[in-house]
Amino acid sequence: MSTATATLPHTAALARLGHALSDPTRAGVLLALREAPAYPSDLANALGVSRQVMTNQLACLRGCGLVEAIPDGRRVWYRLSDSHLAPSLDELMKVVLYIEPGCCDGEGCSCP
């Protein structure tokens, strides 16, 4: 797509994605969910944040249209809202590694 065909809705959608990725916790959630759906408590533990922080970040990601909540009895688990997101995040990580090759030390790294 050329810049001449970019529309205001395209720009707004891209800005929402940028907002979602601008927070390390939200970025971590998206990277975790590209691997598998998860419960908020598991995500909070994995990312080292409180459950309240995780609840707030998941609400933001839902508002951006990137994740969806799936009821499971009395609990709710989360997954990426579209099948295109996981491969897109993988591609974005490749760009990040190109720009900053030393960002992953190889231990516990979820880079592609």
From TrEMBL:
GO terms for biological process: response to cadmium ion; response to lead ion. It holds the Pfam family HTH_5. GO terms for molecular function: cadmium ion sensor activity; DNA binding; DNA-binding transcription factor activity; lead ion binding. SMART domains: HTH_ARSR (SM00418). CDD domains: HTH_ARSR. Residues 6-100 form the HTH arsR-type domain. PROSITE patterns: HTH_ARSR_2 (PS50987). This is Winged helix-turn-helix transcriptional regulator.
